[in-house]
C-alpha cells in the first residue's frame, strides 16, 4: 500500500504532569495576560474559587454557570461578565461543558483560553464548538476555537467518580476508534489513536478497583489527550453522528451515550474495513464490536439506550435524523440498517 496524506498539527501548548496546574499563573503571564476569568460548572464552583485565589491578582473573577451542550444564552451572559470585569483570558477548569463555554466565548471575542481538563472528553484539544440555541445543537469548526494552552494535571482527576471515569474514558476511545477509518486519516493520528486506546484500556480497570491510583489516572488522562487530539485532527463518522443526534434531539447524556453506542457503531463498520480496525481487536480482543462490548461491560458501563428513557418510537425518529444528510462513513448507511443498529443498542444486545 502506498501512502498519501496531509497533516496539520496543532499550535496549542500542552503541559502534562502531577501538580502541573500550579503553573497556571505562569501560563496566564506567558500569554501576556493579566486578568483571567475562571470558568466552571456550578458543581465545580468551589474548585474554581480556589483556583481564582491561587491566581491572586491575575484573576478578576469566576463564572460558574457552564452547562452541558453550551447553551447560547449562558455564553452571552459569560461574555458580558468577562467584558464587565475587563478579562483578557479565561481559565476553563472542568470537563467538556466548561471547555465548551470557553470556546464559545473565544469564537465570539477571540479571548485566549487556558484549559485545565478534569474529565476525558478531549474537547480541550479540538477546534470544534458544539452549541445549542432553541433546542438545536450546531457545530462550528475553526482554528480560532482551539484553546492556546492545556494543562493536564492528573491529580485533579483523582476524584472523578468511577462511573464518569468509565463513560468519559469510553467517550475518548470513541474518538480514536473512529479516527482509524476516517477519510482524512494520517499516520500520526493513527499512532495516537492506537496509543490512546491502549492507555485507556489499561487504566480503566485499575481506576475502578482503586480510583485514586496516581499511575492509572495519569495514564487515562494521557490517553484522553491522544484520543482528543485525533478528534481534533480528522473527520468523525457514523458513531459521532448518531451520538450527536441522540444528545441533540433526545437529550441523552453525552459520555454515557457514546459508551452505549460505541460497540454497535464500530461493529457495524468493522466488516467493511477489517484491516483498518485490526488494532481494536488487538487491544480489546474478539471482533472490534464484541471486544469493545465486552470491555464496556467489564468496566461497568451503561449498556442499553433504553436505560436513558428512550422509547422504540424515538429510535424511528433518530434513524431518520441520523440518515437525513450524507456524511463520510466506510460502510454505506440507510435508514433500515441504522434503525436496526439503534434497536440493538437500545436493548443492549451484543454486536456480531
Ligand atoms: P461535563 O463537562 O458536563 O461534566 C459532567 C459533570 O461532572 C459536571 O457537573 C462537571 O462539573 C463534573 N466534573 C467534571 N470533572 C469532574 C471531576 N474531576 N470530579 C468531579 N466532578 C467533575 O462532561 P463531559 O463529558 O466532560 O463533557 C460533555 C460536553 O462536552 C458535551 O456538551 C459535549 O458535547 C462536549 N464535548 C465537546 C467536544 C468537542 O470537541 N467540541 C468533545 C467532547 C465533548
Report what the structure shows.
The protein is α/β, with parallel strands linked by helices and 352 residues long. Helix 5 runs parallel beside helix 9, helix 6 runs parallel beside helix 10 and helix 9 packs across helix 13. 51% of the residues are buried. The longest helix is centred in the middle third of the chain and has 23 residues. The chain starts with 12 loop residues before the first strand and ends in a 5-residue tail after the last helix. It has 2 domains: 145 residues, Rossmann fold (3-Layer(aba) Sandwich), CATH 3.40.50.1970; 186 residues, Up-down Bundle (Dehydroquinate synthase-like, alpha domain). It is built from 13 helices and 8 strands. The strands form 2 sheets. A 6-stranded parallel sheet has the order 1-8-5-4-2-3, sandwiched between helices. The chain has a two-stranded antiparallel sheet with strand order 6-7. Helix 2 links the parallel strand 2 and strand 3. Nicotinamide-adenine-dinucleotide (NAD) binds next to helix 4, strand 6, helix 5 and helix 9.
Amino acid at each position: 500500500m502506498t501512502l498519501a496524506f496531509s497533516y496539520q498539527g496543532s499550535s496549542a501548548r500542552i503541559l502534562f504532569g502531577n501538580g502541573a496546574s500550579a503553573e497556571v499563573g505562569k501560563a496566564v503571564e506567558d500569554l501576556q495576560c493579566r486578568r483571567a476569568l475562571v470558568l466552571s460548572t456550578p458543581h465545580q464552583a468551589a474548585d474554581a474559587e480556589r483556583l481564582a485565589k491561587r491566581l491572586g491578582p491575575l484573576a478578576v473573577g469566576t463564572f460558574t454557570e457552564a452547562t452541558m451542550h453550551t447553551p447560547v444564552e449562558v455564553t452571552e451572559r459569560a461574555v458580558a461578565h468577562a467584558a464587565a470585569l475587563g478579562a483578557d483570558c479565561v481559565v476553563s477548569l472542568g470537563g467538556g461543558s466548561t471547555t465548551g463555554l470557553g470556546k464559545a466565548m473565544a469564537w465570539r471575542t477571540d479571548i485566549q483560553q487556558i484549559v485545565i481538563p478534569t474529565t476525558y472528553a478531549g474537547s480541550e484539544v479540538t477546534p470544534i464548538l458544539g452549541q445549542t440555541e432553541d433546542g438545536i445543537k450546531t457545530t462550528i469548526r475553526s482554528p480560532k476555537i482551539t484553546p492556546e494552552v492545556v494543562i493536564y494535571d492528573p491529580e485533579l482527576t483523582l476524584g472523578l467518580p468511577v462511573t464518569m471515569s468509565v463513560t468519559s474514558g469510553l467517550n475518548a476511545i470513541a474518538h480514536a476508534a473512529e479516527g482509524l477509518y476516517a477519510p482524512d486519516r494520517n499516520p500520526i493520528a493513527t499512532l495516537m489513536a492506537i496509543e490512546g486506546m491502549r492507555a485507556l484500556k489499561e487504566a480503566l480497570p485499575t481506576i475502578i478497583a482503586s480510583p485514586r491510583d496516581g499511575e492509572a489516572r495519569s495514564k487515562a488522562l494521557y490517553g484522553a489527550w491522544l484520543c482528543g487530539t485525533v478528534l481534533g485532527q480528522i473527520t468523525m463518522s457514523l458513531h459521532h453522528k448518531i451520538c450527536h443526534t441522540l444528545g441533540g434531539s433526545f437529550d441523552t447524556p453525552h459520555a454515557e451515550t457514546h459508551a452505549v453506542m460505541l460497540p454497535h457503531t464500530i461493529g457495524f463498520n468493522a466488516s467493511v474495513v477489517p484491516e483498518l480496525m485490526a488494532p481494536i481487536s488487538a487491544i480489546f480482543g474478539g471482533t472490534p464490536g464484541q471486544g469493545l462490548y465486552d470491555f464496556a461491560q467489564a468496566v461497568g458501563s451503561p449498556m442499553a439506550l433504553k436505560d436513558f428513557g428512550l422509547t422504540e418510537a424515538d429510535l424511528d425518529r433518530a434513524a431518520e435524523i441520523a440518515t437525513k444528510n450524507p456524511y463520510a462513513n466506510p460502510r454505506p448507511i440507510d435508514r433500515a440498517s441504522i434503525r436496526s443498529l439503534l434497536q440493538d443498542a437500545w436493548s443492549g444486545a451484543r454486536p456480531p
